[in-house]
TrEMBL record:
This is Core-2/I-branching enzyme. The chain crosses the membrane at residues 27-51. It is found in: Membrane. It is a single-pass type II membrane protein. InterPro entries: BC10-like, Glyco_trans_14.
């Protein structure tokens, strides 16, 4: 380097002035470039520092102020502080009309937390699961029943796919129909429908009690009485008994061995009321259900035997072995009595409400039945007139003839 400098010094003498001037000019240019470079670098560093501070302060101001348009516009895309999500997304049930098939649905519904305590405030709900052929024709009565209790219940409807629901669905039932399949009464596909209902209801973590209801069912008490009864109960309500006759043990098939023996075979009404634990047990049963699918067909009437047998074998201890749904078998025959408009009166309803049973395994007595069936569509207007008073519904509208008429015309 020094040698080179020396060399150029030596050359100095022979170089004309114009050339010297040119070299100086180059040198000045070089200096200018250097200066611009240094200046640019400094400016860049300063700006980057400034921006950093800006985003830093932005994060802070965003906590207190909702908007700061000028600085926000300056800052690069940064993670804007959002409302806490926590478990909110995880706990949100999928849409009622999801596209899961039965296998996917049952699998998802069978999941449960290993930690029993909930890390959030959970208001337990009662899931009312309507298994119907078509319209819930007593919907206006149920609407009066549900009124004002929105956070304490959820509704699910399974109806035959052929029913296209063309009538204006009543508000509480609107959009509550789950993906449904064909059901023939007495067929094992009725159990599939019940498991489908249970699975859909299990997807909502708030549901604690699960009630199966038909379109001809009515409630016998007001919502708060039924809610307290169910939520405070330590038992399940699945009717289950050993019937030695031809319509009991007579329906047993020896091929069900070894999973189900004749001694374990039970009968009972299909209209159940169970807690979350048992609901999980039912949807995740992969031992007994396939046996019923295979060997309980036709006049076996799986709906009268599957749940009573399963519960008796695996969940007998917590079961009351009785149903909460009253039905009149007194007239004999293979089907219970239907009730017409002329059967419905205050005395009749009071009689159903006044039956007493042991509650929570004998600790106290309480109502035997919370629901009753089988009420035909013709009973609706009469029920609307007398039931809200007899059953002491908390909030109800006076029956509106006009509304009722249009509803009836549509079903
Ligand atoms: C429902 O089905 C009936 C007959 O099956 C048909 O006449 C009617 O148009 C359908 N309504 C809707 C909304 O699809
Ligand atoms: C359960 O019973 C207790 C005491 O009997 C009562 O205080 C409580 O409110 C009841 N819970 C519900 C949900 O009704
Ligand atoms: C119901 O029946 C089961 C057996 O199936 C039995 O373990 C249970 O104690 C019975 N419950 C009552 C309340 O009798
Ligand atoms: C609900 O019904 C019960 C009787 O089952 C009654 O004691 C209670 O007062 C009713 N609630 C209201 C708000 O009317």
């Amino acid at each position: 380097m020094t040698e080179k400098m020396k060399g150029s010094n030596n050359q100095y003498q022979s170089i004309p002035i114009s050339k010297i001037f040119k070299i100086q000019l180059h040198f000045i240019n070089f200096l200018t470039y250097l200066l611009v470079l240094v200046f640019g670098l400094t400016l860049g560093i300063i700006i980057s520092f400034y921006l950093k501070e800006c985003t830093f302060s932005l994060q802070f101001t965003q906590l207190s102020l909702s908007s700061l348009p000028r600085t926000q516009h300056l800052s690069p895309p940064i993670a804007v502080k959002q409302e806490r999500v926590g478990l909110k997304d995880f706990l949100k049930p999928p849409p009622i009309m999801h596209d899961m098939d039965d296998e996917e649905l049952l699998w998802r519904a069978s999941m449960t937390a290993k930690i029993a305590e909930y890390p959030f405030e959970r208001v337990p709900k009662v899931a009312f699961m309507f298994l119907t052929r078509g319209a819930v024709f007593l919907a206006p009565l149920w609407e009066q029943f549900f009124k004002g209790h929105e956070v304490y219940y959820s509704i699910y409807v399974h109806s035959n796919p052929s029913y296209n629901g063309s009538h204006p669905e009543s508000p509480v039932f609107h959009g509550r129909r789950i993906p449904s399949k064909e059901v023939e009464w007495g067929n094992v596909n009725m159990i599939e429908a019940e498991r489908r209902l249970l699975s859909n209801a299990l997807l909502d973590i708030s549901n604690q009690r699960f009630v199966l209801i038909s379109e001809s069912c009515i409630p016998l008490f007001n919502f708060s009485t039924i809610y307290s009864y169910l939520i405070n109960s330590t038992q399940n309500y699945v009717m289950s008994y050993d019937d030695p006759s031809s319509v009991g043990r007579g329906r047993y098939n020896i091929q069900m061995l070894p999973e189900v023996s004749l001694n374990e075979w039970r009968k009972g009404s299909q209209w159940f009321e169970i807690d979350r634990e048992l609901a999980l047990g039912v949807v995740s049963d992969r031992i007994y259900f396939p046996v019923f699918q295979e060997y309980c067909k036709g006049s076996c009437y799986a709906d009268e035997h599957y749940l009573p047998t399963l519960v008796s074998i695996k969940f007998g201890e917590g079961n009351s072995n009785r149903s909460l749904t009253w039905v009149d078998w007194s007239r004999g025959g293979p089907h219970p009595a239907h009730f017409l408009r002329s059967d419905v009166n205050v005395k009749f309803l009071e009689r159903l409400r006044s039956k007493k049973c042991k509650y929570n395994n004998g600790e106290s007595t309480n109502a035997c039945f919370l629901f009753a069936r089988k009420f035909l569509p013709s009973t609706l207007s009469k029920l609307l007139k007398i039931a809200p008073k007899v059953m002491q519904f908390e909030h109800y509208d006076r029956p509106n003839k006009h509304k009722l008429l249009s509803f009836k015309q549509n079903i």
